């Protein structure tokens, strides 16, 4: 109790200095919180894709894969399910309302597209109806579509009947909960695409292969690529997570940048806090001498100083995190992040770092305490 | 003594006592150096990447993509459509009468970095022979151009300097056959310097393809764009989009350039706020240490406002010193370096604009951090301070 009182009165000794140091530390921690939340957000954006999923595309951009590949891949060991996706560019009513419809084929596994929140009966309805379509809530609301709507889309690809008019029936609407990205996909039956299109028959743009276990990813990927190496269309297979990571790191290595910023700001913070504390200790030489004369050991006094810095640093981390949490949804939208909730792990890291920063920055002050003898201290020398 | 000379005198006097409070002032300088280097570094990254993409943009050239495709890699144009495009009005013709149109095919090539051996995919771009008329910015730096119909490659200088096995005379395996590197080029520092050029028809043959990814068109002039656009949309068989080079450059760079700039400004603001508090702290320390001196000056007849301004001036000078250290740090560490994950490498270049922005931010920090302590310094209770000392 007396210890806590001494800690608080030590901090209160120069309220302006304590407050300013506290605020400057809080600003650093709010930056730390925001940046690490961004980083973690990018990582978890990858984690939402199953580890055992492979993405097979042609080794040339925009070239299609023969659908016959599906049965060949299915014959390979350690393959559990296969799904195909083929885009069909369309617009709704006006050229400006672009809709990228995706034709689903194979063993359909809707979580390929991230965790869509879709009632199961709606998902099944898609395959009972040739012209069925599942759309995202945002897309549906934008155009006023509801369950059961029959909607005409104008495709960029002509149909066999000589028109470019593709008609769909909305059989499902999905949501994307707790995310900043909007639910804007348009999914329909591959069968419908196949029987209606004029060109590129029997081909798909992407083949997604689920392996029985992520450990088999490398061998299955190699087996797929080598079986088609000498075919009409060689393939390029990589794991979905690998692909997503490449997309994120396409031009900039965010992780590296965030780490550099955080390191340099923490280094500065260390200097600021360390400097404030050593100044505070220097001013209190006399006080400490009194405490020592009263029987306080230097270890006890050191503990007092360290505790002061810890209180300052940890409470600044708390304020910083609260601020970061408040602004994170806005920042997440700014950097196109999917997750908009700040992960808890970031808070744990921040407090850990606050603890270390406090320890390191109180080190020089603690060494100062030991130097003057009680007599020297009391004399104010 | 006039007002201005008073300020100078007090500031000089203040600086002479700097060594006695070196700790807190150096914190301010180091803190500012940190803020400025982070902020400037991010702005430099963002602007250099944008600059790379728009380095060779010209208003009288356009890119044709298939309808709805945002990028070349998602686009597919049949050779038949290429012939249609070549015949459209508004397209410039060479002296020999050939339309200056390049049908381009992109294929990936896996290469290894010279540093660290990491595997990366770069782009091999198949071009029409006339592409060198279309893109006069492509200049050979060594060797010769590739010949039509042969399996030969021309390597961009950034790609050559960064990846293994792309020197003149080296053989590269593409689709099971050997392609020889016969030359290297530069191109205004644009993204093509990170690519490899090949003869378009040879590449199409190797990949057994009957369509290209994009078509680049040299127009007769900027004003021919509408003629060209009208003619293209008048043909109902052509499902194609026209994108200006400027638009395409923005499309390629906007995502990450804005990401970098956002993070840069975010870090700049938050660290700036933190630095303002730290600056305030060290200026408070400064006036506490100097309070006897300041009170004495007041008694000697120095105006309170002169004292206020001189403290503010000291804060600004320290802040600018820190900013200069930060700028020098950024200049020596990243200016001129090559940055980039695949596929585009970018030469980082510190812009004057970014330096001014960083200096502006520093002055703001100096003012925020210096003003309150400065006003406090002007209001020092003379009698009490002088009695206590």
Describe this structure in words.
The complex is a heterodimer of chains A (381) and B (389). Chain A has helices spanning 2-12, 15-47, 69-74, 120-128, 137-143, 190-196, 217-228, 240-248, 254-283, 285-293, 298-334, 344-370, 374-378; strands at 53-58, 65-66, 79-91, 98-106, 132-136, 150-155, 165-174, 186-189, 203-204, 206-211, 235-239. With 381 residues, chain A is an alpha+beta fold. In chain A, helix 2 packs across helix 11 and helix 11 (298-334) runs antiparallel to helix 12 (344-370). Chain A is elongated and about 100 Å long. The mean pLDDT of chain A is 85. Helices cover 51% and strands 19% of the residues of chain B. Chain B has twelve helices and 14 strands. The model of chain B has no long low-confidence stretch (mean pLDDT 89). In chain B, strands 1, 3, 4, 5, 6, 7, 8, 9, 11 and 12 form a ten-stranded mixed sheet that branches. Chain B has a two-stranded antiparallel sheet with strand order 2-10. A two-stranded antiparallel sheet of chain B has the order 13-14. With 389 residues, chain B is of the alpha+beta class. The longest helix of chain B is centred in the last third of the chain and has 45 residues, at 245-289. Chains A and B meet through helix 2 and helix 9 of A and helix 2, strand 3 and helix 8 of B.
How many β-strand runs of chain A? 11
Distance between the termini of chain B: 27 Å
- Major sheet description of chain A: 6 strands, mixed, barrel
Q: Outline of chain B, from the CA principal axes?
A: elongated
Order of helices and strands of chain B: HHEEHEEHEEHEEEHEEHEHHHEEHH
The pLDDT mean of chain B sits at 89
Main sheet: strands, sense, barrel of chain B: 10 strands, mixed
**Secondary-structure element pattern of chain A, one letter each:** HHEEHEEHEHEEEHEEHEHHHHHH
Give the termini separation of chain A.
31 Å
Q: Provide a count of the helices of chain A.
A: 13
Query: What's the Cα radius of gyration of chain B?
Result: 30 Å
- Give the structural class of chain B: alpha+beta
Low-confidence spans of chain A: none
Oligomer: heterodimer
Which band does the percent of strand residues of chain B land in?
A: 15-25%
Radius of gyration of chain A: 31 Å
Number of helices of chain B: 12
Percentage of residues in strands of chain A: 15-25%
Q: What is the share of helical residues of chain B?
A: 40-55%
Name the pair of protein chains with the most residues at their interface, and give those residue counts.
A-B, 52 and 58 residues
Q: How many E strands of chain B?
A: 14
